[in-house]
Amino acid sequence: MAKTAIAYKEKMKEISVLSLICSCLYPESRKNIMGDFEDMDIKPINKRASGQAFEVILKPPSPVSDAAHCITSPPKRDISLEDIQKKLEAAEDRRRSQEAQVLRALAEKREHEREVLLKAMEENSNFSRMAEEKLQMKMEQIEENRQAFLLAMMERLQEKEKHAQEVRKNKELREEVTE
């Protein structure tokens, strides 16, 4: 297909120049088929104000023309046992390198996971220790407040008791005085 397209482009270049020259030299009408090339026929469709129109008909490729366009590939060189061994060793080295790279990546990932786990455990223990210290301080504060409250209650009870004794003493003195 590519060969045909290249041939088509070349022929179109030739045709455009040829038709220009022919139309200048021979203005009279030509027969229906303008040209007959090996692999295409050219027929004018009709004359237009903007120029000429042509119908290009491509012929199927002939077996003779295929042989002319066939490009031979370079001959394959003989591959020796040493070349095969070198290629196999290179492939093995690549495989080992890739495997080592995968193992390195896995080791780095495990190391990162271990670091994250250690950090989480450390943060957890720090949080637990801080919470325990906070709770201990709170319990100590509650105990101090309780002791202070109990002391204050005892003092008030003692003052009430003193006041009650004074009131009793004053009452007895009044009763003695009134008797």
UniProtKB/TrEMBL annotation:
Pfam families named in the record: Stathmin
Compartment annotation: Cell projection, Lamellipodium; Cytoplasm; Membrane
Full protein name: Stathmin
Family, as annotated: Belongs to the stathmin family.
Single annotated GO MF: tubulin binding
Keyword Coiled coil recorded: yes
GO BP: microtubule depolymerization; neuron projection development; regulation of microtubule polymerization or depolymerization
Residue ranges of coiled coil: 81-115
Organism of provenance: Betta splendens (Siamese fighting fish)
Keyword vocabulary terms for this entry: Cell projection, Coiled coil, Cytoplasm, Membrane, Phosphoprotein
Gene expressing this chain: stmn2b
